Amino acid sequence: MHEPTVHAFFDRATFTVTYIVADPDTRICAVVDPVMDYDPNAARTSHGSAGKVVETIRDHGYTLEWILETHAHADHLTGAQWIKAQCGGKIAIGENIRLVQAKFSGLFNLGPDFPTDGSQFDHLFADEEQFSIGALQGRVMHTPGHTPACISYVIENTCFVGDTLFMPDYGTARADFPGGDARTLYRSIQRIHRLPPETRLYMCHDYMPGGRDPQWETTVAESRQYNKMIRDGVDEDSFVEVRQTRDAGLRAPVLILPSLQVNVRAGVLPDPEDNGIAYLKLPLNQLGGG
Questions:
Q1: Where are the alpha helices (DSSP H) in 153-228?
Q2: First and final CA of the chain: distance in angstroms?
Q3: How confident is the model at residue 290 (pLDDT cuts 50, 70, 90)?
Q4: 123: burial class by Cβ within 10 Å (0-12, 13-18, 19+)?
Q5: Contacts of 88 (CB under 8 A, 6+ apart)
Q6: How many CB atoms lie within 10 A of CB 12?
Q7: CB-neighbour burial class of residue 24 (10 A; exposed 0-12, middle 13-18, buried 19+)
Q8: Which end of the chain is more exposed for a tag (fewer CB within 10 A), N or C?
Q9: Where are the domains of the chain?
């Protein structure tokens, strides 16, 4: 088995972890879940977070082959397009992005000119589809529940789980977004937990419970033994009850509205209007208040 080289980048503004996954022999790499910086007070975008990723790719002499999204994020804008413009690569996501596009096309009134076929992305992955990063072998696991389009990337002895799982002291993703479902989430996590126990699990977020330092790597064995919400012995009904109770008290993510209308476009910002300014929409009174 090839051993991937993994570089992690923690964005404190959104608690998001971006990864470079590289084949140390061929120096071909992929980027997982890149971040575009967004200041909600000024509605201003920038690329400091993505710039660190690009700098690392260049410093190590890597060739970027894939930009892999685990889902259409609701907590940060994706930096996929900017990284592609700097380094190349194909932007990929799970094929069920079409369901998410159809749902949010209506919410944002994107109109008939907005395609909901996933064509904004360079590649749509099917469940169990295989791919490569140099000599590294990868496969896709459809792991819905947080959203219907969530996928996890199993690359050799690593798995990038997106928002499906968190570190054991925090638990799991919420399941109350449109198309989310706690029972489906439970079953998806069981699928991840059936990977070999030594598999390294990489989280997309860490919220530093108790004020500890950020953490983003665990193993299947540790998650099965210690995850506070879904360790071994927690049955489906018990998990669903706890997850739904917790979700009922959660507020919508701060960046959900700007994030989704950019992320369903694979990171492309809306076209400027006739005054040369691009606009994001804020649909009023459409989301739960938490």
A1: 182-193, 220-226
A2: 46
A3: very low
A4: middle
A5: 63, 64
A6: 9
A7: middle
A8: N
A9: 5-263
**DSSP state string for 16-66:** EEEEEEE-TTT-EEEEES-EEEEETTTTEEE-HHHHHHHHHHHHTT-EEEE
3-class DSSP assignment, residue 80: helix
From 91, 74, 81, select the one nearest 30 (Cα to Cα).
91
Those residues whose C-beta lies under 8 Å from the C-beta of residue 213, and which sit 6 or more positions away, are none
Place of tokens 């990284």: 83
Residue with tokens 């509605």: 43
Q: Is 265 helix (H, G, I), strand (E, B) or coil?
A: coil
Pair type for strands 158-160 and 77-78:
unpaired
User: Looking at the domain covering 5-263, what would its CATH class be?
Assistant: alpha beta
Block residue for tokens 């923690």:
10
| Tokens 């509205």 sit on residue | 257
Pairing between β-strand 63-68 and β-strand 28-32 as defined by DSSP bridges? parallel
User: What 3-state DSSP class applies to 7?
Assistant: strand
90-94 vs 63-68, strand pairing mode:
parallel
What is the C-alpha R_g of the chain? 18
Distance from C-alpha of 131 to C-alpha of 139, rounded to nearest angstrom: 6
CB 31 within 8 A of CB 53: yes
Going by C-alpha positions, the residue among 152, 89, 98 that lies closest to residue 120 is: 98
d(CA 201, CA 130): 19
The pLDDT, as a whole number, for residue 51 is 98
Alpha-carbon distance 55 to 22, whole Å?
14
Residue with tokens 């992690």: 8
Q: What is the pTM of this model?
A: 0.96
| Predicted confidence (pLDDT) per residue in 196-213, tens digit | 999 999 999 999 999 999
